[in-house]
Amino acid sequence: MNKEKAIAREKYASIFLVAGGIIFLFGMIFGLFFRTKKVYDLPWLIAIIGAVCVLYGIMQRVNRKKLGSEVEFSGKKAKSFFLKYALIFALFVMIVVIIFIEPNFCQKDVLLDILAQSSIRLIIALGICMTLLIAGTDLSAGRMVGLAAVLSTSMLQDPAYANRFFPNLPYLPVILPILVAVVCCGLFGILNGFLVAKYNMHPFIATLATQVIIYGVCSLYFDLPPNHSQPIGGVRNDFTALAQTKLPGNISVLIPIALAVTCVMWFVLNKTVFGKNIYAIGGNMEAAKVSGVNVFRTLMGIFILAGVLYGFGGVLEAARTAGATNNYGNGYELDAIAACCVGGVSLAGGIGKVSGIVVGVLIFTVIQYGLQFINVSPMWQQVIKGVIIAVAVAIDLSKYKKVLWH
What we know:
Elements: E1 6-8, H1 9-33, H2 42-62, H3 64-67, E2 70-72, H4 75-84, H5 86-101, H6 108-133, H7 141-154, H8 175-199, H9 203-222, H10 237-244, E3 246-247, E4 251-252, H11 254-271, H12 273-283, H13 285-290, H14 295-321, H15 332-342, H16 354-373, H17 378-399
Antiparallel strand pairs: 1-2, 3-4
Helix pairs in contact: 1-2, 5-16, 6-11, 6-14, 6-15, 6-16, 7-8, 7-9, 7-14, 8-9, 8-14, 10-14, 11-12, 12-14, 15-16, 15-17
């Protein structure tokens, strides 16, 4: 190793520890003694950045044996680093610009609102990421969200509400309609998995067909008398509490729910045989078969678990908005796919991390929320999102030279 291009891991960690500590103290002192309305919660955000730097330094020091005694620096590594995190740097620049235009973007409540809005999208993205890891996709995700929303709300309306979907339906425990909605989505996941695993149908075609079927079934159900395609309202308070409850510190209950789902999915993908098989199939399906992976069972499991996550996301979306229509979830699958791509999930399959998906979802939410915050035209918002998706996929293809599903 060239010593002129390397630094001791211990020293590298110390730089982050010292710099992070200084940034943290600056933010805390600024927030406690010199805070003004013009900067809002910016000091606390600075303190958080400092804390993240300290945490990174600690991780580098603790894992120095695993990571190596030295950190190598070179032009090639720098280019690779900036290529890998290009969108995060762009996001940081964008946040700075938004703060410059609207300083009140630097508020704790804004951050919490962004996290709350990201929560349901993250659950859906975690479902769809598994289909991307096998170099496939799932176009039925959004319609499953809508189906779960309509099914759950139709059975959880207040008994005193005038326009009940089922006028004579008895008072049901809140968990029962939720389970019905999630199980129905899981059944459609079985259909997706069967078409892909049994008939070797491309996931794009299989899930496109299922998407149309689900929307038709949901619309027929939604049009049943006496509802006749009217928006479902009058949802019970014990149902809306699942997504509208505020925890101490004005934290939405959706945030810990999404965190729990994320931890479960991280464990599934990284610590189970099923998760390792997903990556194996995405890397090379034929090699996975030869090595003893039960491809049929794994593909079925992927689409079933994805359907369950879509259903759970749809239930939470209905609880958050206290209502539903058959058009709920329309386009959610495209946002989820885009967020996964931005987060580093390769369309070629076999590559992707849960942490990257979290970052991808946050990036898209911050972009959408921030552009609305500074009153950017919705048309321009679509243009910007499209550019980001194109850039993300271009970066992905430049990093991973692999053949797509065929």
